[in-house]
Structure formats: C-alpha cells, structure tokens
Design a protein that fits this description.
341 residues; alpha/beta; eight-stranded mixed sheet; two-stranded parallel sheet; 9 helices; 12 strands
Length: 341
C-alpha cells in the first residue's frame, strides 16, 4: 500500500520513493553514513579523469571500455575550466565535496568518494537515438561497463567499499529529449519506452547489490537561451513534463517492486525553474543568454573583454545547453539538504 505524505510516497514495507517537492526529506536514508557516490549520466554529471576521454569522461570511451582495478583506482578527478561542461565543479562534485579544488583529486582521498561513470553527450540507448560521437558511451553501456569492470574493481580492491554505504546517482534524458524533440512519434509512449530501457539497466545495478538510488528529473530545457528566443521551443515544456512523468512512474514502480530499496527522485525541474523565476535570490542576474567568451582561458577575470557585463557565476546558463558551476553548487546544496535525515 502506498501512503502519500509530505511529497514522499512511503511503502509500508519500508521502501521509500520520494517524488516531487525538492525540499521534502526521503525517509530512512542516511546520507551522513554514505561513503561513496557512483554516478551515471551525461554532461550535466560527467567529470574529467586522468584516464578518461578528454572533455567527455572520467574513464574510457566506447573504444576503450575495458580497464583493470589498478587503472580505475589510480584515476584522478581533474578540476579546471574544461574538466566539466560547466566551467567548474558540477553537482556531484559539490554534493560529495570530492574534486572541487583545482588540480587532481583521487576519489579515494575524499570523505565521500565520487566514482563517476557518466559520459558527456550520452543518451539512454542507441535503440532510440544515435550516438553523438562514435566514442560516446550510452547510459546502457555505462552500466554494462560498470558491471564488468568498475563494480568488481571497487568491490574487491577498494578497502571499505560496500554497496550498502553507496548511493547510485543517475541524471539522464537531457540529450534524449533534445535529440528526439522533432520525432514524429507519440511522445508519452516514446518516453515510456525510454524509461523502460533506463530501468532495465537500473535492475542490473540492483542485481549487483546496490539498494540506494537518487534520480534527477529533467531541468526546464524549454528555457535554454535558444528556446527562450523561439516562439515554439524545442523541446517544449509539455515534452519535458511528459518525460518527467514517465521517470516518476518508473521510479515508483521500481520502488514498489524492490521493497528493500531506497528510491529517491529529486525534482530538479522545480528547483531550477524557481532559480530562473527568482534569480536574484541566488546571486544570478542573467537567465536569458550566456557569455559568448565562456570557453576563453581568461574569462574568469576578463569577462568584459568578451562583451559580458558580469562574471560567469552570475549567469544561469554557462552556454547554450549547460548551467553554470554556480547553479550546480546551489542545486547540490539543495540536494544535500534534502538527503539529510
């Protein structure tokens, strides 16, 4: 039986599924005792690694899926202007406080270790949308790669690593909805199929003994700089809503199926939309476009040289499709507050 209370669907047997309200607390999840976060997704979540594909991954690519434990455990998070798609630390780095400082960080040296297998440009599966590059690792392949190489390396070679002290974080669908926005399909049915495939991969993670899951729903992609300039945004708000509804339905079904799991869905859409609606609360003055010189090496101090009236940290959008590191920091703070019991 499902009982609705304070935006949390609580299953009487003990499984919890938090959907909607980003300020609600997921019941019975202990963030303070979590030792590691294992992340999957796309450019909103990827971090650069010393053994990764430059500008795309922490480790490997489609042509280099295999790695041994020594390679993974010696890998380091790179933090510089080009080490994420946000020009600075992103939400998983801020959430774990792992890799936030410039230079190199071994996940093993973080109080909450960050093992990030997200790949910039990833979609859920090539069954529905083509790869952005021939080296791109889709979400399905990220999890298959993790099952074959990452999980055994961590489980058997990393002292103290335990599935019951690990949170799985997944933020995916941004590229899928952008890439398919003009398809001639029944979109609610199409998004259901996408999320069916997503949760088939989540079942793979469950079979490996992971029991804590954090899902992030889609941001307001209808309000990117390009879409704000259009009379007919693509994707539009309705499409974003349909995808988010499909994700919520699947997360609820997964939680109901797996009584011992802790399944949490953070409503990133609501939180980010609120930031766009009232940006000055968060030190943001520009929500409609981005600084054209965002990728210049001296942009942090010479932004005016590129025609930008304010620093990147006061923009919501870092470029045409990504949020600034400042927005990721605020979002991570909201997620952490929500996760704390």
């Amino acid at each position: 039986m499902l009982l609705l209370a304070t935006s949390i669907l609580a299953i009487a047997s003990g499984t919890t599924f938090a959907r909607a309200g980003p300020l609600s607390r997921p019941a019975k999840f202990d963030w303070s005792s979590t030792k590691a976060l294992v992340a999957f997704g796309d450019s909103y979540t990827y971090v650069q690694g010393t053994h990764g594909h430059q500008n795309f991954s922490f480790i490997g690519d489609q042509f280099n899926l295999a790695y041994d434990a020594e390679t993974l455990l010696s890998n380091k998070i790179v933090q510089n202007q080009t080490a994420t798609a946000e020009g600075g630390p992103n939400w998983v780095e801020y959430l774990t406080n792992c890799g936030v400082h410039k230079g190199l960080t071994s996940p093993q040296h973080c109080k909450k270790q960050l093992w990030d297998f997200a790949f910039a440009g990833a979609d859920i599966s090539t069954e529905y949308t083509p790869l952005h590059h021939n080296f791109t690792v889709s979400l399905v392949d990220q999890i298959n790669q993790f099952k074959q190489y990452g999980h055994p390396a961590l489980q058997h070679n990393l002292p103290g690593f335990k599935q019951d002290k690990t949170l799985i974080a997944l933020w995916i669908g941004i590229n899928d909805i952008n890439d398919s926005a003009k398809y001639a399909v029944d979109f609610p049915a199409f998004y259901k199929n996408l999320t069916d495939t997503l949760f088939t991969s989540v079942e793979t993670l469950y079979s490996m003994g992971y029991r804590s899951y954090l899902f992030m729903n889609l941001p307001p992609l209808d309000r990117t700089p390009g879409n704000q300039a259009k009379s007919n945004p693509s994707p539009n708000a309705t499409q974003v809503g349909w995808y988010n509804a499909a994700l919520a339905d699947h997360a609820a079904a997964f939680a109901e199926k797996h009584k011992g799991a802790q399944v949490m869905l953070f409503d990133a859409h609501t939180r980010l939309a609120a930031m766009l609606d009232e940006p000055r609360k968060y030190g943001i003055v520009n929500t409609t476009n981005f600084c054209a010189g965002y990728d210049q090496p001296d942009i942090a101090v010479e932004y005016e040289k590129y025609g930008c009236p304010t620093s990147l940290g006061r923009y919501f959008w870092f470029n045409s499709g990504h949020m600034t590191s400042h927005v990721h920091e605020v979002l991570a703070w909201e997620v952490e507050r929500w996760l704390q019991v």
